[in-house]
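Quick one - first record:
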Amino acid sequence: MRILLVEDDARTAQFIKKGFTQAGLTIDHAGDGLEGLFMAQEYNYDAAVIDIMLPRLDGLNLIERLRKAQIRIPILVLSAKKSVDERILGLQTGADDYLVKPFAFTELLIRVQNIMRRSQEQIKPTVLTVADLKLDLIRRKVQRGDVDIELQHREFSLLEYLMRNAGRVVSKTMIMEHVWDYNFDPESNVVESRICRLREKVDLPKAVKLIHTVRGAGYILEVR
């Protein structure tokens, strides 16, 4: 899962980024509203966390522009404003949830997971299936046939991305942008390393292999 965080306070942003990263989520950070608008238009995100008081373009105007542009990612608003009227305004503008500062990170994480789940229930399946491989997004459980497969957070995200794009070749750059972040070191072999680990867990015990390398192009998950 890839999250966009639009927050101008460096300490708050670092706190949120650290927590999300430890939870296995990929985080892109924008320090002002215009940068956040650009990133939301250029990249695909599973959710956005947006502060209201932002330089250059405030959070409510940012959300309004995103909705007018038909960008429907789930959005959670962060604000130091506690009044009911402010919360209502944020929700009316197009946000899916509203959290008042200061907040506990656990609550933020649960709220973001909830708005992503509601979005997935509306437009995406909550269980991905390719052949006898199943990935449950809600329970975060993976099975090949009747055998449970234990995956680390990043391995789970990588497998989810491959399964969402089953039958399509995805390049190393595409994987890095979605599973890690858009400015990850292109010379790193982290993708190859994680693909190798996935194969050991998903394919090695089985006669039918699902994860394939397309030389010079990337990877594809399909039955061959």
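second record:
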Amino acid sequence: MAGVDIHVFDFDFDLTFCVLLMNADGTIYHTYGGRDWTDPQSHLSMKAFVDVLRKTVREHEAYSADPRPPKKRPKLTVERIPPMAERIRKGKQPTCYHCHTVHDMLHEDRKQRGAWKRADTWIWPDPVEVGLRLDKEKQAVVRAVEAKSAAARAGIRPTDRLTSLGGRRVLTFGDVQRVLDEAPHGATSIPVTWMRAEGEKRGALRLPAQWKEADPRVYAWRPSKWPLSPKPGFGGRELKRGELTKLGLAEDAFAFRVGYVVTWGPNAHTGRNARKAGIRKGDIVTSIGGKVDFDSVSHFHAWFRLTQKAGSKVEIVRYRKGKKAVLTMDVIE
């Protein structure tokens, strides 16, 4: 991301793969890329990519006859975001600027300026937040509609093909996410059109306040979770089946071995807090706050950051040398 103008090349910087189909004037026609929480390749398909390329060529020809360039904004690169600029000034320039570094630096900058809001957490919402599950190959086609969701209330059904959302033509999972990302966090209504066998349908996604707030399971894949607070101060790797059964746990149970307790950097206080509660490297954790159904350690980290409140306490079930103990840890910023 070194030198890339993030005001022009605007996408979900948590992704490992994204393609912007755009005009040289900065107009973004479509965004190909995006994923759900189950699989990094959940919406990556060569067939879908070729389809959007072909359709965008025709859009580009039409746009060229009547261009509407976006308003230009001052150039902003990750190196110019104040916290990164300060690191560079101190000689701590990273060897590589990862895409997710953009989100990390924007988060740090807002925190330093006292401008960070909880609503800033919820970026590029998964379409499931409005009740839509989209097909992988034909990404404007609705594969399923969540019961009692905004999409269901709007009248959208499985096999319908979305044509526009928020007044913008949509062809891809990423297109839908872009419109949702730009919509307000509070109560709002987003116009939507779709095609069904009998013709075009129109409606609106009527969304309540805080509609962007995702379940930790949906959010867990995002690198954006790491800067969020509160932090547990420790982590590790999940146990395999054989390791679980040795502990007398079910093969499909969740547990992880503590591989590190944070004792370095600006978050060292969180590791000291975990150690004070009794957590040590090598311990096996099977439950946090009474929750045992984590999908992964990443899910645990997202859950802790998104659900726990500083000033409260959380119970942790841990094993050490086969002996079970229930610890109580303070939740701190």
